[in-house]
């Protein structure tokens, strides 16, 4: 009774903040579907607990389908969120007129003007500082959607480009050479091999089969450093935890952090020593300190990309641990913004690009370990765990044949709570697949109430642009003497429609 009354009181006292958002931090939990959030909450705090972002006052849902698929990949999902336009599967920064492996946009002499623009460029055009942090590769699909235009998300370096794409720039080059990439104040993550040809291997790193290794002799890291030197810009190239700890965030304007040759290690396996790889929390905290010095504000994207990586391997505990680290990063961010006296001016959004196929099963007793056993199947009389995947990677056969019978493996013969335990799957695949359910979006700060119901995924970009008066929405007028929004004038409507053509490659129907 008391809990329900308390929740009602909080709901009745939610404040609507109509201020213009000076800063935006967009947190993306890759693959963090609704069941991942629920399971992590129970794993960390028990059934009645709440994660940090679940305490945000405004919550909505995003429909994640892409133009050509019911279930999206990270490239199409991130492009929708960052550009305001839904696109085809596996493409980045190109509208639905372009299919995967289409190279026609590269054959145009002015190819850099073809395609979509993102929140990063809109923020830069408004004079704001921009950056991103990821624990995947900085050329991976989600971060690449901020700055790249390519018909194949796998074209991370020159070695991945087919001969017919000779006129196309790989994703790594676009980050270093073009806007908005070269103007990011903060870039941190993994993926060094795509930037430095002949980069030596790290014997302590697990080699990724699909890792793109640069072969054209270019040293894009050197190019980044030379660009900053030639423009007399203070900068630092970071390679480990020690470099971050020694960084003078007050004096440094630009940072490029490449901490691993490929994807960064999961938190459980991460080398936490000074010469090891930094946590998502440390990278994010450092990024905010660097880009928050701009009086016009900043835009920062933070991706926890390894939640999805763990799900693809059916290792549920690792996925939950990554989500716990993600939530910890968000909590630290809120505390830092409060210390910097920026919390009231910052729109903080937490969401996901897509769901996964994790299921929470049966009727386990309250308080039962979420990684434990839920019950016994009435069909084969074999125990089953609370968490399973409908389709996913199976390290060992889930089903075996004994005579005319098919026997399901008994999970109680293994330690189901171990980090390397792979959950049972209904349909085995070489890797887990994505789920097509809606994902939640949580918001707090100026204009956070814009996230309030069921939205299309590309609504994210429109809401952020409107809240910050950037991109197609910078025509917005303010009443003198306060920061409340006025009614739309005919001049503003015309201005916005014209800018919609410029920024979204389509006339956006506005509803207010």
Structure, described:
This protein has 512 residues and is α/β, with parallel strands linked by helices. The chain is 27% helix and 18% strand. The protein contains 13 helices and 19 strands. The chain has helices at 2-12, 34-45, 74-83, 119-125, 141-144, 171-177, 220-230, 241-246, 280-291, 306-312, 316-339, 459-468, 490-504, and strands at 23-29, 58-63, 129-137, 186-190, 235-238, 254-258, 298-304, 346-351, 355-356, 358-360, 373-376, 383-385, 387-393, 399-402, 405-408, 425-429, 434-435, 439-444, 454-456. The strands form five sheets. The chain has a ten-stranded mixed β-sheet, sandwiched between helices. Strands 10-13-16 form a three-stranded mixed β-sheet. It has a two-stranded antiparallel ribbon with strand order 9-17. Helix 2 (34-45) packs across helix 11 (316-339), helix 3 (74-83) runs parallel beside helix 12 and helix 10 packs antiparallel against helix 11. The two termini are 38 Å apart. Mean pLDDT is 91; it is low at 477-489 and 506-512.
Average pLDDT number: 91
Secondary-structure-based class equals alpha/beta
SS summary, helix count? 13
Radius of gyration: 23 Å
Question: What general outline do the C-alpha atoms trace?
Answer: globular
Record field, number of beta strands: 19
Going across the biggest sheet, name each strand in turn: 5-6-4-3-7-1-8-18-2-19
Percent strand: 15-25%
State the end-to-end CA separation.
38 Å
Percent helix, as a range, is 25-40%
Binding site for Mg(2+): 30, 140, 142, 303
Keywords: Magnesium, Metal-binding, Phosphoprotein, Zinc
Family: Belongs to the alkaline phosphatase family.
Binding site for Zn(2+) 2: 30, 308, 312, 354
């Amino acid at each position: 009774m008391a809990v329900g009354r308390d929740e009602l009181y909080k709901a009745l006292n939610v404040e609507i903040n109509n201020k213009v958002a000076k800063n935006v931090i967009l947190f993306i939990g890759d693959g963090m579907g609704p069941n991942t959030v629920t399971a992590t909450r129970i794993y960390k705090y028990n059934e009645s607990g709440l994660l940090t972002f679940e305490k945000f006052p405004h919550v909505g849902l995003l429909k994640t389908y892409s133009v050509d698929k019911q279930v999206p990949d990270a490239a199409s999902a991130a492009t929708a969120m960052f550009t305001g336009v839904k696109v085809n599967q596996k493409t980045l920064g190109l509208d639905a007129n372009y299919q995967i492996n289409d190279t026609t946009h590269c054959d145009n002499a002015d190819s850099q003007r073809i395609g979509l623009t993102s929140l990063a460029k809109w923020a830069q055009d408004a004079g704001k500082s921009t950056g991103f942090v990821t624990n995947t590769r900085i050329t991976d699909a989600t971060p690449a959607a901020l700055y790249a235009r390519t018909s194949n998300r796998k074209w991370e370096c020159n070695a991945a480009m087919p001969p017919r794409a000779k006129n196309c720039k790989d994703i790594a080059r676009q980050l270093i050479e073009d806007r908005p990439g070269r103007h990011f104040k903060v870039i941190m993550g993994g993926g060094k091999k795509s930037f430095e040809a002949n980069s030596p291997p790290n014997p302590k790193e697990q080699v990724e089969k699909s890792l793109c290794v640069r072969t054209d002799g270019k040293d894009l890291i050197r190019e980044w450093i030379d660009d900053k030197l030639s423009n007399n810009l203070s900068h630092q190239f970071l390679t480990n935890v020690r470099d971050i700890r020694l960084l003078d965030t007050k004096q440094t304007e630009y940072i490029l952090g490449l901490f691993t040759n490929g994807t960064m290690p999961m938190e459980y396996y991460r080398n936490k020593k000074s010469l090891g790889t930094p946590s998502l929390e440390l990278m994010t905290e450092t990024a905010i300190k660097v880009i928050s010095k701009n009086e016009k504000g900043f835009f920062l994207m933070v991706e926890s990309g390894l939640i999805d990586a763990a799900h693809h391997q059916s290792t549920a505990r690792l996925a939950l641990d990554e989500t716990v680290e993600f939530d910890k990063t968000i909590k630290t961010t809120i505390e830092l913004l409060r210390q910097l006296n920026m919390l009231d001016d910052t729109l903080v959004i937490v969401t996901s690009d897509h769901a996964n196929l994790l299921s929470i099963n049966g009727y386990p007793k309250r308080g039962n370990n979420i990684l434990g056993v839920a019950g016994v199947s009435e069909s084969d009389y074999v125990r089953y765990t609370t968490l399973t995947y409908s389709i996913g990677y199976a390290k060992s056969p889930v089903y075996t044949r004994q005579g005319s019978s098919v026997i399901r493996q008994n999970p109680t013969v293994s330690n189901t709570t171990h980090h390397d335990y792979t959950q049972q799957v209904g349909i085995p695949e070489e890797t887990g697949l994505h789920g097509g359910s809606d994902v939640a979006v949580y918001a707090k700060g100026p204009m956070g109430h814009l996230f309030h119901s069921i939205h299309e995924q590309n609504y994210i970009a429109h809401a952020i642009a409107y809240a910050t008066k950037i991109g197609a929405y910078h025509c917005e007028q303010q009443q003198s003497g306060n920061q409340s929004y006025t009614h739309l004038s005919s001049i503003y409507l015309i201005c916005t429609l014209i800018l919609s053509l410029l920024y979204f490659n389509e006339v956006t129907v506005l509803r207010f």
